[in-house]
Write a structure and sequence with these properties.
Blueprint (H helix, E strand, L loop, with lengths): L2 H16 L4 H8 L2 H4 L12 H13 L8 H18 L12 H8 L8
Helix pairs in contact: 1-5, 2-4, 4-5, 4-6
Length: 115
Amino acid sequence: MSGADTDSDTIRREFGEAVNMTAGELEKWLATEESQSVGQKKDGASESTGHESGRRIVELLHTKKADLSDDDLAHMRKVHGYVQRHLAQEPEHEDVETSKWRYSLMNWGHDPLKK
């Protein structure tokens, strides 16, 4: 196995740890007003970066391992990094269930309340 294979295995494993929602759960979530109410939007964009990422994550969850491109792996690495950074920012004095913090994480495929 080459170093690139090992690296892609690590990326896929970390992505799988970060994304704890199924493609169906994420698609259903992305259709909600709550999902569309959070996140930063690029100049003039109607969709937030996280919401756009969520749609890409759904595609990645449906993609076979052998069909993942370097671009796909780069996005998977980005998702893992975002989820790890965002989890560290959990609000202390807010109802997590309805927080923008949770909604934003869910756009990236991670529901912090899911066990």
